[in-house]
Design a protein that fits this description.
The chain folds into 2 domains: 53 residues, no CATH class; 88 residues, Glutaredoxin, CATH 3.40.30. Helices cover 54% and strands 12% of the residues. The chain has a 4-stranded mixed β-sheet with strand order 2-1-3-4, with helices on both faces. A hairpin with a 2-residue loop joins strand 3 and strand 4.
Length: 153
């Protein structure tokens, strides 16, 4: 696993490479038509921002050391990561539910190891732990059903 600061450096390196590619292409296209070169540069910056900014999202996070104690029937611990559209969808739908604890696997090495333990070494998120159940990429409805079913046991 890549530690948080290493991941940030890696993303920074990717941003620099993308910036150099955009600048090179913009200059090459803009040598005959500066307006087109500027348009390509702007499009490259927008595309780069769309690709890289979600990776920097911090969002909700409870350390795994605290969250693992909350795994129980009627309470879910969701292992997620920034930039994951499925995680974002679930967070938007259930972010305010007090029965859900959110753990960013990129901010916590132990949480990352836990999600990989459940998926044969893969970082599959979102993964929700409800009591003894493991739900991989659940919809909000599936997670709510698991919470309501577990609390009625």
């Amino acid at each position: 696993m890549v530690a948080g600061s290493e991941r940030t450096r890696s993303m920074l390196g990717s941003a620099v490479v993308l910036g150099l590619v955009v600048a090179t292409v913009s200059l090459w296209i803009g040598r005959d038509d500066p307006t087109r070169g500027v348009a390509v540069a702007v499009a490259g910056v927008v595309l780069g921002a769309a690709l890289l900014l979600p990776q920097l999202r911090r969002g909700r996070h409870t350390p795994w050391a605290t969250a693992r104690e909350r795994v129980a029937p009627g309470h879910a611990v969701v292992l997620w990561k920034p930039g994951c559209p499925y995680c974002e969808r679930l967070l938007r739908a259930l972010g305010g539910d007090a029965r859900v604890t959110w753990v960013n696997v990129w901010a916590d090495e132990d949480a990352n190891a836990e999600v990989r333990r459940h998926h044969g070494g893969d970082e599959l998120v979102p993964t929700a732990l409800v009591g003894g159940r493991i739900l991989t990429n659940p919809s909000a409805g599936e997670l709510l059903e698991a919470l309501e079913g577990a609390s009625g046991d």
